[in-house]
Every structure is written in C-alpha cells, then in structure tokens.
Amino acid sequence: MKIKLARAAKMGGLLFALLAAIGLVVTSLPVISRGERNAFATTLQPASVKDSALIEQAYAYLPQKTQFDAFVALKDGRQLAQWGEADLPINTHSVRKSLLSGLYGIAIARGYIRLDQTLGELAIDDKVKPLTALEKSATVRDLLMSRSGIYIEAAGEAQGMKEGRPRRGSHRPGEFFYYNNWDFNVLGVIFERRTGLSIGQAFYEWIAKPTGMTTFKPGHVIYDQPGYTEHRQFVIFMSAADLARFGMLYANNGAWNGHQVIPEAWIRESTQPYSDIHDMPPFDAYGYLWWLDRRNHVVWADGWGGQFMIVDARHHLVVVARNDTGRSLLQMGLFAAFGKDGWRSHLQTLHGMMVGASD
C-alpha cells in the first residue's frame, strides 16, 4: 500500500511539474491580441482583374494544395485577391528581418545611422561573450549583408543555424556569408539605440501610418532575452494584409499614394545581390535582409512556419501567404509537431496565377 501511495505521489509531483512548466511557458510571454482596426486604417480599392477565372483557380488551389491561413495579393496598391484571416496578427518569424531593412533605409536617410559605422564606434559588445578587436571592426553594412564574421550563440537560432555556424574567428568581417541571427538581433539593438525609438514605435509611425495599415500596433513587437547573450531578439507580429502593404512599398520604389515612405535609393540598394546562394531554391542571392530570386526577377521575405512574401516590382505586384504558428512557445511547439503544410513552391504557383490575372 505504501509503495502504491509513493508511486501516486511521485506521479502527482511529475504532473504538477509538467503543468507548472506549461503554465510558465504560456504566461511568461506577452499575449498578442487579434487587435482592433487602427483609426488611420484605409480600405484598399479592388484592382482590375483581367482574367477572373485565374482568381477563381487560385481560391480553389489554396485549400486543396496548401494549408495557408491567409493569402493576400496587391496590384499597384489595390487589392487583387484575399483569402483567410488576412487581418490576424501572426508571428512573422524571419520576415522580421526584411521589415527591419525598411526601417534602416529610413533611419539612414534621416542621419541616425551610417552604413560604414563599426561596432566599436557604436559601442556594441557582448557582455556574456566579449567581442574581439577584429569582430568590433564589423560595420552596419556587414551585419545587413549577414557577413559580420561574428560567430557566437544568438537568440532565436534554428537548429540548422547552430549546426552551420562557422568556428569563431574563421572569417574576417565582410568576407563570408552566414545567415546569422547575431547580426540580425544586433541590428535591432543598434536601431533602437541610435534612433531612441523602439522598433514597434518606429514602424508604427514611419510605415504603418503612411500606408494605412489595418491592425499593426507598437506592442506587436516583443522581445526574447536569453541568458547566453547580451542581445535580445525582437519578434514582430503582423497581419498578412499589413505585410502586403509593406511589400507594396518595395514594388513601388518606396512610395505609397505618391508619398515617399522608404527612400527609392534604399529600395534599390537593399535588394542588390551581395552574396550568392546555392542551396536554398528558389533563392540565389541575399541582399540587405532580403532573399533574391534573380531568375524570376523577384525578392522574398521568408520565415519559419510558412511566412512568405514575394515582391514583384516588374508587375507592381505583391503576394503574401501566412500560417499562424501561435502566440506562445507551447503553441509554436504544437505547430511544429502538427502544423499545416505550405511551401515556397505553392506561393510561386499563386504568384504566377496573380501575374496572369493582372496583366
């Protein structure tokens, strides 16, 4: 009897510990609400559609061939097609990097930051793993190209990034491309220190308001601060509809309704190929926080879990497909285990349909 009671107590303790751990995971992270419509939100007019049959095929293709939660296509700043929960704020995952690239273009034009500034000049170090003098010579441009040469553990790294991280000190700043969360996270730190604004505040004022975004709020940018690095990761939640408006800026030389939001020169510079990519089709190059597909003359923002955006400047077209991966670590774990399908090739197919429907 005593043995049974001891086993029951042990099982009860394990269950309590498990529930406590789950509660900690769920409650320790900020909750991103579905959000109310912004007071400055604008409604997009429908784009002219050449072939309505292609749009109907796209709607039929979405639920049958993919499991995206939301899809949006804009043509010349007008709505071409929309499906699913387009106004739901969703974790952008690595799409956050392309969003930050747009903010950098504005910050540089306003004189807050220079591309040639070094980490040493900007007083950037890492208290947990101090940088060497050579590492401190890396510039803002090196970080934007993901060529810092700084190979230490960073917040938000996927397993593949950890496994592919070069040996520390193996490459000088600027000479080698490695998709590096340390670079991306520190760019967020630099931006906030130099501008005096949070990423959420800056995006809200500089981009969301001018483009009439529907739901984005400053509080939709949250932070992850692990103990193994000084520099926290910024995490951006944004709806498919708002992300498409951001992409439209890049399809239209940085302008929205005749207002220059992001400098035209930055749009060109940030989407130039600075590194060749050989193992991530359809991507064949990397710019300043943007993936390039030069064969098809488009650029991509790309994130874990099916966060995709194609910007097609030739056709003044943006297509966005999103999956909701959740609002906590527990939800993201469940998505990873049981999540929906949705591949880059699916969005490429939908992009082709949208081109055909809008030409």
Automatic annotation (TrEMBL):
Q: Which GO terms describe its molecular function?
A: hydrolase activity
Write down the superkingdom of origin: Bacteria
InterPro entries linked: Beta-lactam-related (IPR001466), Beta-lactam/transpept-like (IPR012338), Diverse_Enzym_Activities (IPR050789)
The residues covered by the Beta-lactamase-related domain are 75-320
Q: Indicate whether ATP-binding appears among the record's keywords.
A: no
Keywords on record: Hydrolase
Classification via Pfam families: Beta-lactamase
The question of whether Hydrolase is a record keyword is answered with yes
What this protein is called in its record is Serine hydrolase
> Which organism does this sequence originate in?
Dyella koreensis
Q: What is the lineage of its organism?
A: Bacteria, Pseudomonadati, Pseudomonadota, Gammaproteobacteria, Lysobacterales
